Predict the 3D structure of the following.
Amino acid sequence: MPQDYAYLDHAATTTVHPEVIEAVAARRAVVGNPSSLHTAGRAARRVVEECREQIAEAVGARPSEVVFTSGGTEADNLAVIGGYRARRAADPARRRVLTSTVEHPAVLDVVEHLATHEDAEVTWLEVDETGRVRLDQARAAIEDDPGSVALVSLMWANNEVGTIQPVAEVASIAAAHGIPVHTDAVQAVGHVPVGFAESGATLLSLTAHKLGGPVGTGALLVRRDAAVSPLTHGGGQERQIRSGTLDTAGIVGLATALEIASRSRESETERLVALRDRLLHGALDLGLGIRVGGDWEPGDASRRLPGNAHLLVPGCEGDSLLYLMDAAGVLCSTGSACHAGVPQPSHVLLAMGLSETEARGALRLTLGHTSTEADVERALAALPGAVERARRAGSLSGEGPRETSASERAEPAETAETAETAATSTEAAQAPRVDLSDAEVAS
C-alpha cells in the first residue's frame, strides 16, 4: 500500500530497515535459547556474542560492557536505580543524584522515584536557552560535596530540541571525584559520533528502534569496573546485572541496524542536515513569526542532532497544530511521544526559560533515513494553513494559548474541542513539567 503522508516523527520511532526485517525474520525461524547447552542453544549463543562484538565496535566499547535490555527505558532504569543502589550500599552517605532538567521521562521519573521512595536527594542541573547544561553550574554542583554524590545522569542529545550535551566534559569533572556518570544516548547512537570509552561515561543507554531496528531491544553499556545492582532476578544472564532469556532475533536486529547506521552515518548526516536546514529556513521565511527551538547553526551537526527541526509557533496550541498537520498528511509531534495525552507544556521548553504560552506552541519535526525533499516541501506547504486555522480556532474559543493556573497544573482539565479538531480528538503528545519545588536546583 503506497504511503500517502510525510512521516516526520523519526525521533519517536523510525522505519525499520529492510535488511533488518530480513535478518530478524531469518533468526526468528531458528529455535534455540542462548542459555541452553545443546547444539541449538550454543548456535544461538554464538549469534548473540557475535552481535555483542559488532555493537561494541560501533560504539567504542568492549564486548563485555554490552548488557542487553528490552530497550532504552529499561536501560535507563537499570543505570539510574541500579547505579544509585550500588553506591548507597557501598557508602550510605552517597544520597545525591545529579541530573538535568531536560532529561527524558525515562530518567526524570526514575530520579523522582528515588527521591520519593529511596531517600535520594536530587540536584537539578539547569540549562541555558538552547537546552544545554551549564558546565560551570554542573562543576559547582559536583564539587560542592562530591562525597555525597551517588551518580550523575546526563543525556547525550535531547529528544525534543535536539541539543547535544557536554557529556565528556561533565564525565571528566565527575571522574576527578570517582563519581559514575550515566548518559541516555538513545537519540544519539547511530546519528552522531558516540564513543563510550572516549566519553568517559560509566553507563550508556541505547535502543534499536531509533536507528532502524526493532522495538523491544536495547542495551546498557556498563564499564567493567562499574557497580550496578540488578533490578530483576532469576538467571543473571547478563553479567548478573540483568536476568531474562535473551531475544536473539531482536539482538540481531539491533546489531544489523547499528551496522547500517554506522556505515552510512557521515553521508546521512550531510543529507539530513541539508533537509533540516531547508525545513527550518523555509519555516522562518513563511512570515508567521516562527522561531527555532534549541541550538541551531545552519550546516552544523555537532551541537544539534542532524534530523531535528523544532519550531515555536506563536498564537497556537501545539496539539491543534499537530492534528491540522496530520490532516494535511504531515505526521509530527509536539514533544515526547512517551507522554502522549498529558496536556502540560513541555518541561524541556520551560527549563529553557520559555513561558508556558510559548511552550504550548511547539512543533517537533524529525527526519530520518526515509525522509525526502518532498516530505520537507509537503510540511512547508501545510504549515501556513495549519497555523492560520489553529490561530483562528483559538480566537473563536476565546482561549488560545495561555498560562495554566496552579490548580490546572495539579489536575489538568480536558481541553474543549474546537470545530477544527473535533474529528481527531485526542490529547497532545507532551512531556510532564518537572516539579522542582522539593528539590535542590544547582545554580
